[in-house]
Amino acid sequence: MYTFDSRIRYSETDSEGKLTLDALLNYFQDSSTFQSEELDVGISYMRRNNLVWVLSAWQIVVERYPRLGEEVVIGTFPYDFKGFIGLRNFVMMTKEGEYLAKANSLWSLLSTESNKPTLPTAEMLAKYPLEDKLEMDYAPRKIAIPENGATEVPIVVKKHHIDTNHHVNNGQFVNMAMEYLPEGFSIRQMRAEYRMQAFLNDELYPYVARAEEGYVVVLRNQQDKPYVVVEFTGKESV
Questions:
Q1: How far, in Å, are 76, 168, 237 from residue 201 at the CA level?
Q2: CA 163, 166, 171 angle in degrees (round to 5)?
Q3: 215: helix, strand or coil
Q4: What is the tens place of the pLDDT at every residue in 120-179?
Q5: Exposed/middle/buried for 75, CB within 10 Å: 0-12, 13-18, 19+?
Q6: Residue 32 burial (CB < 10 Å; 0-12/13-18/19+)?
Q7: Residue 120 vs residues 35, 42, 128, 163, 232: alpha-carbon distances, Å
Q8: 12 phi and psi, to 5 degrees?
């Protein structure tokens, strides 16, 4: 497992002094980027070979949100390649080995020339050591969209939403979706199903629906085709 150490910063905490979900997601995203860079199959390598990894699905399960100043260890490893699909786990732990959060993710490798799926290079497959998948309750990739939800005011994609792949970063999608949760809602699991890329100046139409144990937020285009479907499971403050 590739790991790096950190300490929870004030800028990463909420009003209660605990790590936010979007900061946790950023830690996970950074860990896989750090690993790829250290293995020399990072951003520069991908650009030279006209390749890009596009996130297809997240499942993040939170056991406990660490507090301001707490020392943590973030880890990640790929556990399988299936054609153009890569599967990767993530963890955040305390220094003592307590699991704070676990995650599963599914990535698709695309050619930036054709924008179609493509197989990993032999060099990429050789660089990434596969490990046994984490023990966790793996949820299905597909997320059911409840009926009787409400459509909110459109969001226009701005420059700060865009990452090095020139589309809306997966974490930015989740940040947008979180804005529609009620005050005090405690997220214990987040699932995201990414269906379409969004680019600068695109308009996203939020659809928000109550689910059995939380909320589902869909960010759609004008034709009602989803860019992303996000499910938040947890509990509301009493």
A1: 33, 10, 36
A2: 35
A3: strand
A4: 999 999 999 999 999 999 999 999 999 989 999 999 989 888 877 777 888 889 999 999
A5: middle
A6: buried
A7: 16, 13, 11, 22, 32
A8: -105, 5
- Closest by alpha carbon to 155, among 168, 171, 170, 142? 168
Among residues 88, 93, 79, 77, the alpha carbon closest in space to that of 24 is found at: 93
Cα 94 from Cα 7, distance rounded (Å): 10
- Note the pTM of the prediction, 2 decimals: 0.91
Q: How far is C-alpha 141 from the chain's CA centre?
A: 13
Give the CA diameter of the chain.
Answer: 54
Pull the structure tokens for residue 67. Answer: 């507090």
Other CB atoms within 10 Å distance of the CB of residue 137: 9
The SS3 of residue 36 is: helix
Cβ–Cβ < 8 Å for 194, 174: no
Give the number of residues written for the chain: 238
pLDDT tens column, 30-73: 999 999 999 999 999 999 999 999 999 999 999 999 999 999 99
